[in-house]
Amino acid sequence: MGEDVQPIYVDLASESDDPHVTVIDSLCLACQRKGTTRLLMTRIPHYKEVIITSFECEHCGNKNSGFQSGQMQDQGVRYELAVQSEEDLLRQIVRSDYASVTIPEVELEIPGNMQKGEVTTVEGILRRTVEGLNQNQGPRRLEQPEVAEQIEDFMYQIQGLLTLNQNFTIIVDDPSGNSFVENPLAPKADPQLKKKIYNRSSEQNAALGLSEQDSVENGLQFGNEVTENAVEVNTEEESGNVVDEILVFSTLCDRCSRPADTNMKVTKIPYFKEVIIMATNCEACGNRTSEIKSGSGISEKGKRITLRLTDPCDLARDVLKSETCELKIPELDLHVGGGLIGGKFTTLEGLFNNIREDLEKNPFLGGDAADEDRKIVINRLVDDLDEIAKGRLQVTFIMDDPAGNSYLQNIYAPDDDPEMTVEEYERTFEQNEDLGLNDMKTEDYIDNSIANECEELLAEVH
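User: That's the sequence. What structure does it adopt?
Assistant: Structure tokens below.
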């Protein structure tokens, strides 16, 4: 049905004969003559849908490139990288239009919306900063010698960072959520790189052109209006309970970006809790995806589940992985962050296959951008995951979810599982910060003035 439909966004490094490159004539800002701009709408695995732009002027040789993200994300993202070696200078960075870049050691701050988005490296950001500061230094030395000298000193400090005369920290803060900093140790955790997902403030939403209603909808992960043919809930029988009812939302296909329908259902997992399952089916390209969300919010405590895989039958266990859950296999030094593969409701075999497929498709790990040593490590890890999925390799599987919304089937229920342990733990301050709980006000939520007005109204009624 959808074989002849071409996707709007093609995969990065696609082998398609038609790369969907759009070529348009553009004005060169350097020589004011006609140049050429090429546009490619592509999908970067483990990242986002983006529009890559490349401009070239055949008259003066001026060239530049950049990118624009396809859509705004539900939350902002903040990366903090400790730069300690030449390898760190070569780390790839995807920076959107809205991302600010800060280096506290030299008091450098590049605000968002000052430059267009780009795919670059730590070194590239520093060199472009020096180039920008060096512009107009000739006239400035004549007209404002003191300012020119200060800029020279500042450029000297930044050039010192390029030679690593000191370790420094680079912070990429993007309220749109469309930026990325490479982890060369992936799928292991990187002790030098910290990533934080956060809820945007009202000011940040306004700067992004989002209303408060948009923010609420994005926070719920829906962000779409119910279509006219959505299933109606029988309020007389259910009294507002949507369990066992299927709701239909209009959304966009994450493969071809054409209109598609998303079915949503609330269901109860035995010995666990209620969850929201969402499944999207695109009639245009045939793509099918599913996602799962907790239906009961964040638990009071975090949860850590440890399973020793000793039998191929373990691979058939049901598993619910929330978007905040980290996965670990110590024997393989494998650490999968919470947001890597999102929320999943599948089997252990299916989950291992998902991780393996994501590692194979990630261009930052195994593509042309990766070095040979990393490719060897990733290929070995892919082979090990394949052996686990086939029941040939016994390992320890750990699910660590600070939100407490993940689940692994106990095949001995209601008795204890001899191969599985479930621990509840108190979250750290950092974990609560990542979940947005530290700033959440739950006591005395109603302002005193509002409470007084309510009391006055009640008094008038009586």
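Confidence is low (pLDDT under 50) at residues 13-18, 215-240.
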